[in-house]
Amino acid sequence: MDYEAVIGLEVHAQLSTNTKIFCGCSTEFGGDPNTQVCPVCLGMPGVLPVLNRSVVEFALMMGMATNCRINTGSRFARKNYFYPDLPKGYQISQYELPLACQGRLGVNVNGVKHEIGITRIHLEEDAGKLLHGEEGDMVDYSFVDLNRAGVPLIEIVTEPDIRSSEEAVAVIKALRDILLYLEICDCNMEEGSLRCDANVSVRPSGETALGTKAEVKNMNSFKFLKNALDYEIERQIELIKDGGRVIQETRLWDSGRGITVSMRGKEEAHDYRYFPEPDLLPVPVEDSWIEEIKDKLPELPREKAERFIKDYELPLYDAEVITASKNLAEFYERCVELFPQPKTVSNWIMAELLRELNKENKDISESAMTPENLAGILILIDKGTISGKIAKGIFEEVYGTGKSPEDIVKEKGLVQISDDDAIRAVVEEVLNANPQKVDEYKGGKVGLIGFFVGQVMRKTSGKANPKVANEILQELLPSPET
């Protein structure tokens, strides 16, 4: 029997406000433990929360960007549970009336478009953080850092529309790209700014009823998300095939062992004993505020990719790679302004620039390469001043130093040789030095033309114009026998 996976994601994004959701404490990452706290975020008796307006505005932006319906009277609730890093013994969240709901998100997986439903986007405060110390194989002590308590979050909950680990990764990448375009979250997964839990079940292919789900936590990278889902899907299928049954529980991803492990039984909503937050009024969202925010929304990744395909005639893959980053998309468009050959610019960005950026895990904004310099390299190639091979060496130096390509060409004497007589002399020298290869070419091995061009380029240190060299070789070589 074939089985299919049914996956829904719960994505937590830390909003990039300067202060926390209900108090004026800093949200800056990396402060000394328990220094960015106050009576409000510590849950001291008698204090009252005050809602940060920017938090609501950021959440509204994400709701609109994912085609959600905005609730004009959402309200907060208390979610009760006891954990060492939750100082109040409850979390202020939203339950029955979230800020946004019934949205959708388009993703592309291996050239196939999928529409994923967004169940809800709601606001909540983050908990603190437990810091564990180990001696040998045992956890010896745990400290609590409450700097993160009260940091504003949005939780984005998808419908169970996802059917594979690849699709799940595409969804969280698409959400990350939108958050970065909106500039409302830095999406640093290592620092916990973007976190993901997944609800996973399996069922026989063709069935419509949902199977028993397990929640998988502790996935702070795209790689871990994919590996954890692949493992959990296979675990559940094998369990059912062996006559067992899936238990509704929360499991952790152990990246060291490459397995999911049971953590606790999965809570239901009633276990949290939700009730309306008595210290906060419902959140009024007026139509004028919605329109004001809509007017401020930037062109989003999917819209930009569609425009790049239409305006620049880029393939879907190129368009999606380049528009995944707002900074890279702006870099690309500036390059095309300076060197109006969109596909050539795309090729160099994807093959050369992204290779270097990925190697150093950098954003284009952190690179010494400018649109003017990349366009300058392409202009030099187009004019025949330098060859493509020399251009790649120049690219590496420009990327590393920020020097202009024109200056590098002048300093190193890298101007391409296009003089017909000069190249002809080198071609004759190559042919005279390789009589056996000439005979083989004459005998029908026409592919040897590449060998001869390579020899010409080697003798000229890559400076010969390969097009001119090829034309002269075609003229001087004997006609191949048929």
How would you sum up this structure, described in words?
- The protein is α+β, with helices and mostly antiparallel strands.
- The chain folds into three domains: 3-289, no CATH class; 299-412, no CATH class; 420-476, Arc Repressor Mutant, subunit A (Orthogonal Bundle).
- It has helices at residues 53-65, 165-182, 222-241, 287-296, 301-312, 316-323, 326-338, 342-360, 371-383, 388-401, 405-412, 420-433, 435-442, 449-459, 466-476, and strands at 3-14, 69-70, 73-74, 77-80, 90-93, 100-109, 112-125, 129-135, 138-145, 152-158, 194-204, 214-219, 249-254, 259-265, 275-276, 283-284.
- Strands 2-6-7-10-1-11-12-13-14 form a nine-stranded mixed sheet.
- The radius of gyration is 30 Å and the shape is elongated.
- The chain starts with a strand and ends in a 6-residue tail after the last helix.
- The relative contact order is 0.09.
Structural class: alpha+beta
For the record, the count of structural domains works out to 3
> What's the alpha carbon Rg, rounded to whole Å?
30 Å
Portion of residues in helices? 25-40%
Largest sheet strand order: 2-6-7-10-1-11-12-13-14
Uncertain runs are none
DSSP E strands, number = 16
In round numbers, the mean pLDDT is: 91
What does the overall shape look like? Answer: elongated
Proportion of strand residues: 15-25%
Instruction: Report how far the terminal alpha carbons are from each other.
Output: 58 Å
Question: How many helix segments?
Answer: 15
Largest sheet: 9 strands, mixed
